[in-house]
Amino acid sequence: MPDILTLGIVQMKVGSNRDENLAQAVAMVRKAASQDADLVILPEIFNSPYDSRLFPRYAESYPGLTSNFLAGLAAETGVILVGGSIPEKDDQGNIYNTSLVFDKKGCLIGRHRKIHLFDIDIPGQITFRESDTMKAGEELTLVQNDRVCFGLLICYDIRFPELAHLAALQGARMLIIPAAFNCTTGPLHWELLMRSRAVDNQVYLAAASPARNPQASYQAWGHSMIIDPWGRILAEADEQEQLVMASLDLDLVEEARRQLPVLQQRRDDLYDLRW
pLDDT tens digits, residue range 62-107? Predict the structure, then answer.
């Protein structure tokens, strides 16, 4: 019997009202669960605006309002829930861009703090500095559940191939990327990067973006997608709010690695990835 996992990505519009954002997440996660999703992914910064100036205002501790909400939603719907990401505040007052993962019973099974902060300046197009208000995470995150081991990265992390490759070498069969690319870099690099990381590491990859919100200060590219280990796009959104679903044959990971054994043929005598 094939090992099939049904995956859902919630591409939702995010606004300034946290309660409205959470209510929309509830509706769309429930819809995914009604379509037999085993694992559901929310987008990057799904509970508040993606605006570095506002992160301190919306930051929450763990446990807190949004993390309790995610735990309860996972338990209610019976899905593995990757809570996109939220601005998370620790006991010292540091703020992180954090993804929380809950199992079907609502228990926390993973937490990733974005390692590479999005600090860019493209003159005349976009300037953004997460580091003005956020602190970088320090750990690679692998999440093991009863169905699949996956590496968890957030947005800008995907541009650093070493991180994705380390996840694959340590057992990941899937990469999950809550990400809010913008309308400058998205058309150029979104599909290219996501398909490349899937092919490089012979893994499934799910990239979860917010939907486009014309009223927001930051315009997300959208185009959430699910990609197989051969780089084929199994499902893709446009820029509008929608649910992206696909059934994944997890045995395809081993099949791809057996037919094209690039991970086994690495020349560790010439190059090596170190922590």
Answer: 999 999 999 999 999 999 999 999 999 999 999 999 999 999 999 9
Could you give the CA distance from residue 20 to residue 205 in angstroms, rounded to a whole number? 29
Rounded CA gap, 87 and 47, in Å?
9
* Tokens 């093991």 found at: 144
| Residue listed under structure tokens 């409205």 | 20
By DSSP bridging, strand 149-152 and strand 174-178 are parallel
CB under 8 Å, gap of 24 or more: what pairs does 122-131 form?
122/184, 125/184, 126/182, 126/184, 126/185, 128/52, 128/182, 128/218, 129/52, 130/52, 130/55, 130/97
137 half-sphere exposure, CB direction, 13 A CA radius: 24
- To the question of pTM greater than 0.85 for the whole model, the response is yes
* Sign of the dihedral defined by the CA atoms of residues 18, 24, 28, 30, in that order: positive
How far is 254 from 26, CA to CA, in rounded Å?
34
Number of H helices, E strands in the chain: 6, 15
Return the ∠ at Cα 32 (arms to 195 and 8), rounded to 5°.
10
Between the CA of residue 106 and those of 56, 74, 99, 102, 256, what are the distances in Å? 27, 5, 15, 5, 33
Whole-angstrom distance, CA of residue 72 vs CA of residue 267: 46
As a whole number of angstroms, the distance between CA 80 and CA 120 comes to: 33
Residue indicated by tokens 């800008």: 156
Q: Which amino acids are annotated catalytic?
A: 44, 114, 155
